[in-house]
Amino acid sequence: MKKAYLGVIFIAVLFLTACGANGDATKESTDKKQSDKKAVLTIKDMAGRTVEFEEKPKRIVALTNSDMNILYALGTTVVGRQTQDASGVEADALKKAAEVGNTHDLNLEKIAATNPDAIVASSEQNLKDVPALESLGAKVILTGANSISDIKKQTKILGELVWQPKKAEKLNAEITQNEKNAEQKAPQNKVRSLLVLGAPGSNYAALPTSLSGDVLEKAGGINVAKDFKGVENFPQYAALNVEKIVAADPEIIFLMIHGGDEKETEAAFKKEMKQNQAWNSTSAVKNDHIVVLPADLFGTNPGLRIDEALALMTDKLNQVRK
């Protein structure tokens, strides 16, 4: 009887051992399948990061206006957007998108509440925020633009993200055509120009390596600050060198306002131009060719509204030559 009892125990042990082995094998097989799962989409973003998606992203948060208006032009909606005026997108379409902060002030709680698959953010402002954003379970794509060519890259990347590469190609073809139109309408005798980025407490000269600087050159302007050295943390812009600017004698001065009270910044800038003897000696100030540019087109990346920025800049330069 005792031998029979021991025999039963021995069989039970063998059974449990076999089950355990099968269980481990099943777990290993499952883990291997998960690790072997291939990406259905691989994107290299504008920060040089390679981002892989195992599934097509359906719920997208866009933290800049430029990304959002490109996504909508591609036929896609977003579940989250920046807490600012959404220029270039119809108001009705935005009612379904939650406001989740902006590139300077992310609201992780609100972003998480949208349950995003992908978050599109700024390559300049949000690279440091990638770990926090990815902790929400979403993939992060970084974009940005310091030239019209960059806007085309941005459009191409977003076209890949939402599986609309053909639409992206069409949008980029339209941008190229708008560049050609601007070139044809640009004044033949190029206009000496100064681009100033005005912010509370400081002013900078925009260099040709900035988006606005690129627009200026394509619209028929000569950037009088082209040889200035960019500031350390803001390389597309330089400190204003009044002596060099006066020597270059700009025929027109453009002011782009970023942040703060726009009317207050504009008033302070124009007052300085007209009261300062050095500035007052320039052709631009003498002839009252001081132009305040729309913030939604020049204070930030306008995305597909770059055609409006090009047309406006070309028109203002032509007015100097009339």
From TrEMBL:
SUPFAM superfamilies given in the database record: Helical backbone' metal receptor
Occurrences of domain Fe/B12 periplasmic-binding (ranges): 59-321
Keyword Signal on entry: yes
GO annotation terms (biological process): cellular response to iron ion
InterPro entries: ABC_Transporter_SBP, ABC_transptr_periplasmic_BD
Keyword Amino-acid biosynthesis belongs to the record: no
Signal sequence annotation: 1-20
Keywords of this entry: Signal
PANTHER family: MOLYBDATE-BINDING PROTEIN MOLA (PTHR30535:SF34), VITAMIN B12-BINDING PROTEIN (PTHR30535)
Homology family: Belongs to the bacterial solute-binding protein 8 family.
Protein name from the UniProt record: ABC transporter substrate-binding protein
Native organism: Listeria aquatica
